[in-house]
Design goal:
Layout lengths: L1 H36 L8 H44 L12 E5 L2 E4 H15 L8 H24 L6 H14 L4 H10 L4 H25 L4 H14 L4 E10 L6 H10 L3 H8 L10 E6 L5 H8 L10 E3 L2 E11 L11 H27 L2 E3 L2
Helix pairs in contact: 3-4, 4-7, 7-12, 8-12
Length: about 375
């Protein structure tokens, strides 16, 4: 053992000595090179000196270009790895096992575990929200409610003679593909890759198309905007511009469902699709609008919410705020400061359209709520 240590020390000493000698020789060579290249130590003419400087510049530029390309390649590889990780996260996950069981009955029609798995796959494929520890329970809850609503809407459409033809569904597929900048063939291939049955996708589309027609019928009968309503709204707008306000979006999660809410906030701070998460998971009436509350006047929100907003910058997402039995997650879009920020003029036509949309949303919300209350729903979860 002692001999091994002595031999190792000798080798190390020899290596250091050789390294020092190499360093000395390198310094001597550098000095001779500097002397040979300097105008002070040779008889180079100005043209040769200029040529040498141009060559040095060319080499430096070539080196910088090489480093730029290496950095670009590194970033591309990093993006490729991130995309691969995202794709892995979006792969279908079997949440319900291989056995067939009933999850719910809606007016005598059943929803099975196979129906649920198909719709979870469709949810992940269309929203790009992966199933993980933070989202699993919320996705299952959302998908089950959507499956129940799908049954209710199709049953109501049949009851009222609203028919959606195969041609309507084909057109719907075309429109959906166009909105996502893909062909119908590519859309079908993407659905197959995500293990989403085309029949399930078309059933969901059929329910939403039928529901749109039902709401349009009901709104035509119930929504009527008077001139006095428009005038009142215009007056309110004129007064409103004198008050500080916040443009806010929200996600509201009941406390009993908020097991992973801190992880959800962390997801939101790295994923810009706040509206999508709000539409899928929020239990607030603002959910169908992506959680958007629009402009909210200072003093209009509950104190804990406003206190959080006053500490936030535009684009920030709040920590979970417990208010009553619900947790609120806020995103501050913009802040309006009266007398500083300019406000675009609002026309009567714009105010009328806003009032019509608001009333139509109210009609749709009440319509679906009434149908849910009248339906015989037995959940097996």
């Amino acid at each position: 053992m002692l001999r091994l240590i002595i031999v190792s020390a000798a080798v190390l000493f020899s290596f250091n000595a050789l390294a020092e000698q190499a360093d000395i020789e390198a310094l001597d060579a550098a000095a001779r090179s500097a002397q040979g290249s300097s105008v002070m130590f040779n008889n180079q003419n100005p043209q040769e000196a200029m040529a040498r400087r141009e060559e040095e510049i060319r080499r430096r530029q070539a080196y910088e270009e090489h480093m730029r390309r290496e950095e670009e390649a590194r970033r591309e590889e990093q993006m490729r790895q991130m995309e691969e990780e995202r794709r892995k996260a979006l792969r279908p996950v079997n949440l319900f096992g291989n056995g067939l069981k009933i999850f719910a009955e809606v007016n005598g029609e059943i929803i099975t575990s196979r129906d649920m798995q198909d719709r979870v796959n469709a949810f992940v494929a269309t929203t790009q929200i992966p199933v993980n520890a933070q989202t699993k329970d919320m996705i299952i809850g959302k998908v089950l409610q959507s499956a129940v609503d799908e049954k209710i809407k199709l049953q109501e459409a049949e009851k009222n003679g609203v028919k959606i033809t195969e041609a309507d569904l084909d057109k719907g597929m075309e429109n959906f593909a166009k909105a996502n900048n893909v062909s119908v063939a590519k859309l079908k291939a993407m659905l197959a890759q995500a293990e989403v049955k085309e029949s399930v996708f078309r059933s969901q589309m059929k329910a939403e198309m039928a529901w749109t027609r039902l709401v349009q019928r009901k709104s035509a009968q119930e929504v009527n905007i008077s001139q006095s309503e428009i005038n009142s709204a215009m007056e309110a707008v004129a007064k409103d511009i004198k008050i500080q306000k916040f443009m806010v979006s929200e996600i509201v999660i009941p406390q009993k469902q908020a097991k992973h809410i801190s992880d959800l906030v962390e997801n939101l701070r790295h994923d810009p699709r706040f509206e999508l998460y709000a539409m899928q998971f929020s239990q607030s009436p603002s959910a169908p609008n992506g959680g958007r509350l629009g402009w909210v006047n200072k003093g209009q929100l509950a104190e804990p919410l406003e206190k959080a907003l006053l500490k936030m910058k535009e684009g920030n997402i709040s920590a979970p705020i417990l208010l009553g039995t619900d947790y609120y997650i806020l995103r501050l879009e913009k802040v309006y400061r009266p007398g500083i920020d300019k406000v675009p003029e609002v026309t009567e036509a714009e105010v009328k359209a806003m009032l019509e949309n608001k009333k139509t949303d109210e009609v749709a919300t009440k319509y679906l709520r009434d149908l849910r209350n009248r339906a015989i729903i037995n959940r097996k979860d």
